Amino acid sequence: MSEIVDQINHIHREVGSREVPDGEARTVLLRRTYDAAIEDVWDACTDPERISRWFLPVSGDLKLGGHYQLTGNAGGEILRCEPPRLLAVSWLFGENPGFSEVEVRLTAEGEERTVFELEHVAVVPPEMWDQFGPGAVGVGWDGALLGLALHLTGEGAPADPEAWAASDEAREFMTRSSERWGAAYQVSGAPADVAAATTRATTEFYVPAR
């Protein structure tokens, strides 16, 4: 197993649900520890130039109450910003996206270690959840946490992200990510056959047959 694929094992995953004004929302939670000071992790998650190096280019009025837009991805409003520990944003993509929010929580664990938590809460169309379960967004967030890990260690993202995404290493990473989300879904109470079916669908989406 490569060091990049092994990053999958550094993440704790939880799946749940929560009532929000728009109805029942699904939740996915990722938690891992980075060997970096909390100020460094906070800066990596909030400085536009650094965000573009490990995630996606971002534009907008990046302050409390302002709006942001990730190139080719989600946009929304900055709902809470409490440096260096808490950032919450609405996470809206496509037409009529419905309720969707992401919260990042940082906790210092000594001077050079930081516990990173990301929780995504969204009202998901039942047909999408029934088909893909938590892996639909979970695999993408695993990739984001991998990007942040490489950035914080100075290794940086692959020189050609598109080529890497098609590599055997990336395919193994996404396959293992999908499997881990299926396991977390089952732990949350999903029947084994339902968790297995959503894992297959998620893997086929992210890792199509060649």
TrEMBL record:
Domain Activator of Hsp90 ATPase homologue 1/2-like C-terminal: 35-148
Record-given protein name: SRPBCC family protein
Family: Belongs to the AHA1 family.
Cross-referenced CDD domains: SRPBCC_CalC_Aha1-like_6
Residues in the signal sequence: none
